Amino acid sequence: MTTKQTALDEFAPMIPRPVPHQQADSPQQAADANLRERLAEFRALLVILLLMTESVSEDQILELAASSAPGLGPARIEGYGFSDGQWRTAGPAASGVSISDITRQLAALGHSGGKVDLPGRRWAWAYPLRSVTGLLGHLVASSHLEPSAEQRFLIQVIAQQTGVAVSNARLHARERATAAELAATNAALAQTVASLQRSMDIHDRLTRVAVSGEGQPGIAKALHELTGMPVAIEDRYGNLAAWAGPGRPDPYPKESFAKREHLLRRLMRARKPIQDGERLVMLASPRPELLGILALIDPGRTADTADLVALEHGATVLSMELARLRGIADTELRLRRDLVHDLLAGTDDESALARAEALDYDLRRPHRVVIVEGKGRTRAHDALLSAVRRALRLARQDGLCETWSGNVAVVTAGQADWEQLRRAMASDLGGQCHIGVGGPSARPSELPRSLREAGLALRLQKTLLPGSSACEYPRLGIFRMLAAIPDLTDVDAFVREWLGSLLDYDARRKAELVHTLTQYLEHGGNYDATAAELSVHKSTLKYRLQRIRDLTGLELNDPDVHFNLQLATRAWGTLQALRDES
Amino acid sequence: MTGPVPSGIDEIGLQPGSHVCAFYRGDSDRDRLLTGYLGAGLAAGDKCICIVDSAGTAERLGTLPGARGEPGPFGGQLDIHLPESTYLAGGEFTTADMLTFWTESLVKAEIEGYSFCRLVGEMTWALRDAPGVEHLVGYESELNRVTASSPVVVLCLYDLDRFGGEVVVNVVKTHPQVLIQGILVENPYYLAPDEFLRSVLPDRPTR
């Protein structure tokens, strides 16, 4: 433990001690008492100066200086005139004192102090307020009595120390302002650095997702980790593609088509994140027809700037992912289409098998070609192709489908109920369709033959056979046998022998007597069924049959005639189909 | 007891009989001085008598270790008063009444068995517009008579944010020691009661 003391204490023994309870009777005692009083005032002044030195407030220093003066003698401090022309009154302003007059007198004094005139004051004096940087101004003191030399000295000391203390306070204020400015600059810099760091983290994390092939689940997971919010990725129809974070709705809600389209339009216009209920959503659209939505689930609306940056960057990565997926799909589709075309046109086994394997399709099984032809509105290629794919999927038949000469060709290893498949397609399309089925091919290089058979079956079915049932080439019987004859000259002669007059008549009159006869014979001579197939009235049918009898001179009910005519019509149909093919 | 006693403030020692004027800025600085000073006294077994200017401060001081207990040498060590029952008892301030209060408190402490007393007064009550407040500096001077020959130390607390320079000057003149900014400034030139009263109040008797 120590007793802290000041330097003045060293002189204490030299000073007369206080003499309590005694009157200063003798001149010596009076002089001692006076000296002690002056020294006590010095001691008090020392404390005042300590307080001034401690203070960092200019106002506080000036107030302390002004308020301490009355304790040190009869003088009071009127105020302070500063070098910039400002005047600050200390305490209540003295009556009759003009500030402009004081400042004018102070300006005339310059760097030195001196006497000033104040109305109603017997004594008034301006003391310079000096600092290391020069003159700050003046302290103006006044009194109704002439102060003693000791009292004037005390005021002068107060002025000197006030100048130093004010100078220090101003310097301190400037330093504080500079420090505050530096602190603010540092804080702003730190915030900028933190923001940049966060942006870099976001960029780094999402870029890693983009190159690592984590797909949409990876993007959702990364965004969830970066923002702390649940994340949803939806396709353009509102179907959930990926989710990360807690609270996944089950079942996932799906908004109406109109509402979804409205949201997509808003997103396309905004081209930035927008609030959609409790979600913050951003559009990912690498191509106009390719859309996805990235959503932050933010019911409290707490997302900050960094979260928005993460969402926008996430949408960019999602756009890249959508474009990549679409590119893969397009490539696979193109490869499949090219393979189907080559298989139908004819290609070597090795190449076909390798390309099928690349598409993860097993072409080593026996395959056949099926031709599907739509009628009327069902001829729209895309709709027909989609209907065929759906029907095959429902029938659990795998195969390669592609459009071919206005129809759809299917290369399949399946053994489906082709008629059931045809009815399913027709029902899906809401119209009619025909199917021709080729024979099986053990190797890919034989598929053009199966294609020809499927085409032949399709044409025969359309021209000769009743109804519109699926027509399988392996079950065509006599037609298949006729089609297999290399040289058709004799067949053609046989047809001319039995149907020549009718063919000429049809050609000349644009009639359908051969077709009418064909259907009549195929329906076993049944008038009603034949008329229905031909979509004509029964009397029209009877008229045509009579015409046929007249032109040929043949009796249709004769069994031998009947057989030869039926063979001739089937041969004619086969020839027609073969000629159409060529 | 003849040697210095620990003040409890910034390792400063005080001689018995010391009458110290302590300057501070703001409530937290005041509380630092009060708890240090009284805490050291309570730890040393001194009788501690304090006058504070608010019930809140009084309540906080009541929670100091050793502050509560039965009256006697080892209990009831800390007496806490408010200005209404001390400086301004009866509705006005008089030097005589206040000196009587301290004298009686010291006698009572001696009867209770305490050999040393530690007094402290928070002087902001003097800022109130109460009758007799103008005698404050004279009272401070007169208090030296009570403390000079007693086993006691006295701390008068002045808030520099609230008292002006004139009070500071006069208070320094009348205190043998001044505690400011952690420094105990000895004042061998302080004016004894008669000297001070003669210099500042030549025509006015003390009350």
Written overview of the protein:
The complex is a heterodimer of chains A (about 575) and B (about 210). Chain A is α+β, with helices and mostly antiparallel strands. Chain A folds into four domains: about 35-175, GAF domain (Beta-Lactamase, 2-Layer Sandwich), CATH 3.30.450.40; about 215-250 and about 255-330, Beta-Lactamase (2-Layer Sandwich); about 360-475, Alpha-Beta Plaits, CATH 3.30.70; about 480-580, PucR C-terminal helix-turn-helix domain (Arc Repressor Mutant, subunit A). Chain A has 17 helices and 15 strands. Chain A has helices at about 25-55, 60-70, 100-110, 150-210, 215-225, 255-270, 305-345, 350-360, 380-395, 420-430, 445-465, 480-485, 490-510, 515-520, 525-535, 540-550, 560-580, and strands spanning about 75-80, 85-90, 115, 125-130, 135-145, 230-235, 240-245, 275, 280-285, 290-295, 370-375, 400-405, 405-410, 435, 470. Chain A has a five-stranded antiparallel beta sheet with strand order 2-1-5-4-3, sandwiched between helices. In chain A, strands 7-6-10-9-8 form a five-stranded antiparallel beta sheet. In chain A, a hairpin with a 4-residue loop joins strand 6 (about 230-235) and strand 7. Residues about 1-20 of chain A have low confidence and may be disordered. Chain B has about 210 residues and is an alpha/beta fold. Chain B has one domain: Rossmann fold. Chain B is built from six helices and nine strands. Chain B has helices at about 25-45, 55-60, 95-110, 135-150, 165-175, 195-200, and strands spanning about 5, 15, 20-25, 45-50, 80, 115-120, 150-160, 175-180, 185. In chain B, the strands form two sheets. Chain B has a seven-stranded mixed beta sheet with strand order 5-4-6-7-3-8-9, with helices on both faces. Chain B has a two-stranded antiparallel sheet with strand order 1-2. The termini of chain B are far apart. Residues about 70-75 and about 200-205 of chain B have low confidence and may be disordered. Classes of the chains: A alpha+beta (about 575), B alpha/beta (about 210).
